[in-house]
DNA sequence: ACCAATGGTTCAAATAATGAACCAATCGGG
DNA sequence: CCCGATTGGTTCATTATTTGAACCATTGGT
């Protein structure tokens, strides 16, 4: 791994539960030498990618990433395109919806919308990293990703976030086959207990899968009517979003929502 | 300059006018060796910071920056805090408003709001890099930045974006002194012709200047009434935003809007 | 058919990254 | 109030990576 990759991989350790990281923690998390981490963080800081909090001397992400994100949106306005789709999908389904995007070998939830109807709803945070095997979004992506990518994901140990999480690669493989047939993925409590999620893949201009659009509902509200309504609305919303960003579905993507 | 800094500095060449850059262009822009740029971009691509467009083989910013930006906002929610302030300021002044943030040695406009009142308005793009000497925002920042920073900025050649741009360092220095006295900066046509801008600095928890809040109006609409109303509204909005993000004004910041 | 430009690749030479050990300061018990 | 443990930060000889001139294959324009 090159020096640049090492530096950038340090940034992957930031997440919602760890917005600030000290030098020692980062050294442990990365497995790199302390002096190396120190110097790399110094360079990241010079370029504005991280900044150091005076008091604790711990690091947090810097302002430079805001500019880059704004330019990324100018290049590929997928987040702004998603907002309307998410809002409408939340209204129609009465549940929380979110968009997750593939970032290398990670899947991160980056935009969401809540439904006004219910007092209880599934809460979301942007930039949360999702597991592939334990979320509907992850399965939707795997169903239409390259075979090599799927193998790489399943070769890693599959973490169990809840007692319901499927951690057997063979079971996950069967789920993926079902996703390919139906064009839609499901997960019941695989990431958060009591959450029933549906998801469909989103495709780019080169027919490659970019991420997934998902509806997350409390299991208790999953009536027979919802089980029919959500896949239908989700399928349509997925096609709409893919189209809005100039994407094209691959030939093997089902054109009608299957049961 | 370390390898990491070189790689990250490649990203600074992306902007609204150059959302995609080919290998040769990037080599020229950066002044680095072609093989170096090629390898560095390869590493940036591996980490999802850039991606390559299949057809043209040129590079654009990658999806990874979106995740980092979302986390930065979770750490320091300055953009979300600014939106309400900008909206209200646009309503009160009837003109376009925007927030720019300091990113190392660059000042980038990152959030804006339009007023509904007028058919003609100053248009803004997020992530545009502003000059320090030719914009009200830049002058507002310089007025309350460290002396060393001001010297570094004025030591560089001052580009003239319009015939009205002040490029004499001594004149700019005098403008900065005036900004310190009044607590508000002005620029008439220094960045775009026919645009009259006012700006106030925004401060962080450590009393350091983070960026500037600005009102940009067509020169033709700058009546005597507006010349009084804008500084007053802007001063109040700046204090409000500084406060909302937990910032503190330095002791030498004027507490009342001066003429 | 040509020339100039593009993206991509090679390999010896030059340079930068590395990591074990060390320092000073701080923290939290007992 | 002292002690051990932990923190951020620094050093420098060794090591491994980066570098860049030159080269190749394609593409596009004239």
List keywords for this structure.
homodimer; 259 residues; Arc Repressor Mutant, subunit A; Beta-Lactamase
Q: What does the model show?
A:
The structure is a homodimer of 259-residue chains. Chain A has 259 residues and is an alpha+beta fold. In chain A, a hairpin with a 6-residue loop joins strand 1 (50-52) and strand 2 (59-61). Chain A has 2 domains: 3-66, Winged helix-like DNA-binding domain superfamily/Winged helix DNA-binding domain (Arc Repressor Mutant, subunit A); 77-244, GAF domain (Beta-Lactamase, 2-Layer Sandwich). Chain A starts with a helix and ends in a 15-residue tail after the last helix. Chain A is 42% helix and 19% strand. The interface between A and B is large, with 52 and 52 residues. The first copy, chain A, binds a DNA duplex (30 and 30 nucleotides) through helix 3.
């Amino acid at each position: 791994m090159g020096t640049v990759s090492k530096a950038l991989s340090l940034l992957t350790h930031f997440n919602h539960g760890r917005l600030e990281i000290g030098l020692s923690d980062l050294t442990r998390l990365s497995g790199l030498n302390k002096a190396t981490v120190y110097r790399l963080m110094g360079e990241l800081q010079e370029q504005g990618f991280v900044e150091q909090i005076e008091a604790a001397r711990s690091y947090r992400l810097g302002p430079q990433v805001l500019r880059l994100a704004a330019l990324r949106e100018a290049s590929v306005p997928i987040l702004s395109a998603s907002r309307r789709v998410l809002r409408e999908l939340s209204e129609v389904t009465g549940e929380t919806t979110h968009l997750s995007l593939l970032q290398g070998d990670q899947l991160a939830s980056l935009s969401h919308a809540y439904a006004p109807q219910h007092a209880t709803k599934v809460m979301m945070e942007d930039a949360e990293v999702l597991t592939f095997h334990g979320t509907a979004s992850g399965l939707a992506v795997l169903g239409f990703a390259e075979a090599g990518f799927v193998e790489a994901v399943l070769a890693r140990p599959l973490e169990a976030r809840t007692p319901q999480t499927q951690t057997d690669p063979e079971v996950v493989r069967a789920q993926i086959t079902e996703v390919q047939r139906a064009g839609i993925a499901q997960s019941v409590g695989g990431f958060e207990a009591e959450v029933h999620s549906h998801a469909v893949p989103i495709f780019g201009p080169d027919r490659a899968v970019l991420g997934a659009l998902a509806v997350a509902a409390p299991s208790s509200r999953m009536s027979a009517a919802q089980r029919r309504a959500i896949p239908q609305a989700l399928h349509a919303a997925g096609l709409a979003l893919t189209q809005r960003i100039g994407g094209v579905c691959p030939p093997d993507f089902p054109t009608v929502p299957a049961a």
